[in-house]
Amino acid sequence: MEFLFVLIPIFAIFAIGFIGQKRIGFDTKSISTMALYLMSPILVFRTFYTTAFNEEYAYFILYTFGLCFLLISVVFILSWINGYTNSQTCGMILASAFMNNGNYGTPVVLLLFGATGLESAIILMVIQQLVMCTIGVYYAAKGGKATSGIKESLRAVKRMPIIYGAVVGGMFQLLHIELSKSVYQAVDLVANAAIPTIILVLGMQLATISVRNLAKKKLSFSLAIKLAISPVIAYVLTLFLPVDDMTKQIMIIMAAMPTAANTTMYAMQFDTEPEFVSVATLFSTSLSLVTLPIVFWIVL
């Protein structure tokens, strides 16, 4: 299928990071911190700056946050049944509740629906960015060894420059503030480099993980939630939304996307099960080669 070509650059960058870490060795935490605090805010700023807001956003926001909280609820139930620790639960949330709607989901929607579906995909991507840099950061901080309690987790969210990048980008969009050509070129360069850097870090992180120590049962739960339960919940949610059929199809397909690479960065920054989140991201991306065609066949 054509969508397989979307994965080639992703896996190629995984491989570069993996080989580089094995052959040379890098301080992945420092690179991750740079991507999180310097590059990602610029990427989010550009995303919100270039995306026009409209009344459909209300439905998309309701859907995206609703899906996220329902997936988190499923994780909490499974964690309670299996007696997982706070850190293990938060790691599962990072691996199960946030999908790769950017460099994976949006190109796939473009291939399936053309330019007519691209606008909806971009809106979902923008809102997903907001969800990840708030709820995602909150649970990453909550599960970290250096953070305890809700107040400290919320303070960690407030300290994240990604949020302010989104706010400033949205304000510039709403107030029609235009950047000069030279400034926008600088923004574009950093934003374009952010996603490849994040994927490189994931590849580097995978190079340090021992498969023998893999929590197979927990990983199976996470993959099932991300690739199977998520699109089912999305389908149920779309039944209650006053949007057209194509938009509903896009919502379900985007919900079936694998784990977002950004979650590995959050997990590394706060030391919240970084090995588990990294492996879940790789496995979910690989298994999506099988699960996504099934979702396409059911939905389309």
UniProtKB/TrEMBL annotation:
Organism the protein comes from: Priestia flexa
Protein's recorded name: AEC family transporter
Annotated GO CC locations: plasma membrane
InterPro entries given in the database record: Mem_transp_PIN-like, Na+/solute_symporter_sf
Compartments it resides in: Cell membrane
Listed Pfam families: Mem_trans
Family, per entry: Belongs to the auxin efflux carrier (TC 2.A.69) family.
TM ranges: 6-22, 34-52, 58-81, 93-115, 121-141, 161-177, 189-211, 223-243, 249-267, 279-299
Membrane topology: Multi-pass membrane protein
Record keywords, A-Z: Cell membrane, Membrane, Transmembrane, Transmembrane helix, Transport
GO BP annotations, alphabetical order: transmembrane transport
